[in-house]
């Protein structure tokens, strides 16, 4: 066994520099001065006898081996963090800090409904929220930056465990009077691909909507231009086209004070599944399942 081993603090500095690409920003993320972070990395390089980072005035460039070691350091830090999580999980359930990612098509509609009950029923839980698109949230989960995600399925998020909460049905939203007598349910075949407005890439709701319609030409013809569901609603309100909205957004009042009509999508799979996901084999699995149960109850 080596006489000297890298410290967790040195590994933390290395990963922060890899993530931020800037000494100042990495130091800020680690709550240390830039000189402290730089000295810690030089000590690490001296310890292992390898140059990890090429330093210039303008850029920070990792060597190929430096990148590999940073990836390994990320895993080591995650394992070290899970040691404390194991001790915490053995104590009082749903207590202490938990970092949860939430995607933008869920956060503003579901969180106001469930957070008050979570605070009431589990006052010792300190839930820190981070809103990110599905790809970014899954990346943060695998890097150990968050502990779990409130996500819409189906979506590939790597090696994760899942607790499904409920199905969230998709609705077609269109300006009032277009058509004059809309049916109670909207068939995907009747959608005008040239007027369909969807969220930009990175939002899994776009893929859920296209998959539910099962019309390949929609992916090529639909306009991917909305940055949020509220933006899409404003576009529809101004007669620019139609869109698809999840039921939770409608129930939360996203169409309030508009002249938009919404009807359920009449398809074989007309819903997305809201779920809580976390890293596979996490020592806090019992906490996550308990949290999922609490969210399911709070959501009704």
Automatic annotation (TrEMBL):
InterPro entries: LysR_HTH_N (IPR000847), LysR_subst-bd (IPR005119), WH-like_DNA-bd_sf (IPR036388), WH_DNA-bd_sf (IPR036390)
Pfam families (alphabetical): HTH_1, LysR_substrate
PROSITE patterns registered for this protein in UniProt: HTH_LYSR (PS50931)
Protein name: Transcriptional regulator
Gene Ontology MF terms: DNA binding; DNA-binding transcription factor activity
Source organism of this protein record: Parasphingopyxis lamellibrachiae
Domain HTH lysR-type: 6-63
Family membership noted in the UniProt record: Belongs to the LysR transcriptional regulatory family.
Gene Ontology CC annotations of this record: protein-DNA complex
Oxidoreductase recorded as keyword: no
Alphabetized UniProt keyword annotations: DNA-binding, Transcription, Transcription regulation
């Amino acid at each position: 066994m080596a006489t000297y081993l890298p410290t967790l603090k040195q590994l933390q500095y290395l990963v922060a520099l890899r993530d931020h690409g800037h000494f100042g920003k990495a130091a800020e993320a680690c709550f240390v001065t830039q000189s402290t972070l730089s000295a810690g990395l030089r000590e690490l390089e001296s310890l292992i006898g390898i140059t990890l980072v090429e330093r210039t005035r303008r850029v920070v460039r990792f060597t190929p081996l430096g990148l590999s070691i940073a990836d390994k350091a990320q895993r080591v830090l995650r394992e070290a963090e899970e040691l404390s999580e194991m001790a915490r999980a053995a104590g009082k359930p749903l207590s202490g800090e938990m970092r949860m990612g939430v995607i933008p098509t869920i956060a503003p509609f579901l969180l106001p409904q469930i957070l008050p009950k979570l605070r009431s029923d589990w006052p010792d839980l300190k839930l820190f929220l981070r809103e990110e698109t599905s790809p970014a949230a899954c990346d943060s989960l695998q890097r150990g930056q968050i502990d779990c995600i409130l996500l819409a399925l189906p979506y590939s998020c790597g090696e994760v465990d899942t607790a499904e909460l409920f199905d969230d049905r998709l609705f077609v939203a269109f300006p009032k009077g277009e058509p004059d007598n809309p049916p109670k349910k909207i068939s995907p075949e009747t959608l005008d691909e040239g007027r369909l407005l969807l969220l930009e890439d990175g939002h899994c709701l776009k893929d859920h909507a296209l998959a539910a319609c099962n019309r390949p030409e929609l992916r090529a013809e639909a306009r991917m231009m909305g940055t949020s569901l509220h933006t899409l609603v404003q576009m529809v309100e101004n007669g620019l086209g139609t869109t698809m909205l999840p039921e939770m957004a409608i129930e939360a009042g996203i169409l309030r004070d508009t002249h938009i009509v919404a009807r359920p999508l009449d398809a074989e799979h007309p819903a997305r599944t809201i779920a809580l996901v976390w890293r596979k084999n996490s020592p806090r699995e019992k906490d996550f399942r308990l949290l999922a149960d609490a969210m399911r109850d709070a959501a009704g």
